[in-house]
Amino acid sequence: MYLNHSKILKELPDLSTATNLQELFLVKCSSLVELPSSIGKATNLQKLYLNMCTSLVELPSSIGNLHKLQKLTLNGCSKLEVLPANINLESLDELDLTDCLVLKRFPEISTNIKVLKLLRTTIKEVPSSIKSWPRLRDLELSYNQNLKGFMHALDIITTMYFNDIEMQEIPLWVKKISRLQTLILNGCKKLVSLPQLPDSLSYLKVVNCESLERLDCSFHNPKMSLGFINCLKLNKEAKELIIQITTKCTVLPGREVPVYFTHRTKNGSSLRVNLNRRPLSTASRFKACILLVNKYCKENEVKEVFGRKMMKASYCIIDLGLDVQCRPTHHFLPPSLTEHLYIFDFEADVTSNELFCDFQVDSNEMVIKECGIIQL
């Protein structure tokens, strides 16, 4: 049943006879205040989507009867205060409570969950029983100082979100999160440096950290994605480190393509490249850089980058020797404030010393001002 985007829907009809209902979509039903207790009769319900139901305060305890429920998403239910207690949804795989801003109590509604998303909630305690949850593989939490007292959670957390405007340094215990894959730092305005981070990390996103200058760390994962968006005080050493390391993709502030890229153009999104050495094999490695400029933002205009549509950057390499188009690919990156560099490594099947490189971005806001390439 699809009832998405209804602004006038305040309540649902009696669901006592909805025994065959398997999916219920109520996304962005902003006037919906509660669910009927009869939802517990929909015993074949497998997926319940309540994203952005901004008037929803609580769920009925009868959801404890939904033993086939696999996915429950309440992302953006900003007034949700409590979830039913003392129930165990035995089939529940994923529970998404991201941006449930006033939710304070840890949701113990299933011990069989695989994915538990609690980013940007006010939950401050993690029960010790979580270590015995047999299927839990992803736990997403927002930082608060209380977490350091729950060391039993450090082996489980996979995503950590920081938005502490007073924090001057990352707590040392973060390095002990052995399964941490994603670290997001948003608006940590007094943060000056980053320490060494867990080796398990594959995605680091740093946004609007206006005092960040130093990177007292190194990155060794070639498949890692790095984003330093609107971090305008990064020093020269930090920028050089970010530019030269091997990553899946990287975003950082910049006004021009660095001289590190031996083939550059100051105007436009394409260039011809005469390689210094003939490829030894058809698969040659390159690092590319494009300078992205926002057409509408003034230099000092502050703009929120979370929650905005991701844009796609793509490239195409033409081998002029045989006029053969090499493997195209694309990357997704967030829209940024003003001028930012987007850097990525790639392989291309080339047979000659002369190439034509063309870059594109599918955005009405951003344009490519410069581009560059270096052969690795």
Output the number of helix runs: 1
Class derived from helix and strand content: mainly beta
Q: How many domains in all?
A: 2
Percentage of residues in DSSP E strands: 25-35%
User: What is the residue-mean pLDDT, rounded to a whole number?
Assistant: 86
**Shape field:** elongated
Poorly predicted runs are 299-304
Describe this structure in words.
The chain is mainly beta and 376 residues long. The chain folds into two domains: 23-253; 263-375, Jelly Rolls, CATH 2.60.120. 2% of the residues lie in helices and 31% in strands. It contains one helix and 22 strands. Mean pLDDT is 86; it is low at 299-304.
Topology of helices and strands:
Layout: E1 23-25, E2 47-49, E3 71-73, E4 94-96, E5 115-118, E6 138-142, E7 157-162, E8 182-186, E9 193-194, E10 203-207, E11 214-215, E12 225-229, H1 236-244, E13 249-253, E14 263-265, E15 270-274, E16 283-294, E17 311-319, E18 324-325, E19 329-333, E20 340-349, E21 354-361, E22 366-375
Parallel strand pairs: 1-2, 2-3, 3-4, 4-5, 5-6, 6-7, 7-8, 8-10, 9-11, 10-12, 12-13
Antiparallel strand pairs: 13-20, 14-22, 15-21, 16-20, 16-22, 17-18, 17-19, 17-21
